[in-house]
Amino acid sequence: MPVVSNTSPISNLARIGRLNLLREQFSEVWIPRAVEKELRNVPDLAARKAINEAKHDGWLKLRPASNAKLVNLLMVELHREKPKPLRWLLRRKRIVCLSMNEKVE
Fold this sequence. Notes:
Layout: E1 2-5, H1 7-15, H2 20-25, E2 28-31, H3 33-39, H4 45-57, E3 60-62, H5 68-77, H6 84-92, E4 97-98
Parallel strand pairs: 1-2, 1-4, 2-3
Helix pairs in contact: 1-4, 5-6
C-alpha cells in the first residue's frame, strides 16, 4: 500500500540509517513537491544519499497535486507549513499519511 509522507519521517529515518523501515512497511512512499524540495536540503550527507537512493530505486516517489482549487482553499484554512501531506492527501483522495514534527537530535 502506498503512503504519503512529510519530510520528518523520511529525513529522520535516513539520518539514523533506518530509511529501509519505510520500504519494508509500504510498497511506495509518495511525497509532494514541497517535501521533495525540503529533502534536497537535508544537512546530513549520508541521509541525503540514502534519500536519493530511495528515489533512484523507485519506492520514494514525487506525486504532485492536481487540484489547485482545493489546494488554495486548504492553504487558507490550514497552517501553511505542517500539513503539506494532509493537503496533498486530500487532493489525491488517499487515506494513509505519515507525519512527524519531532527532529532527531
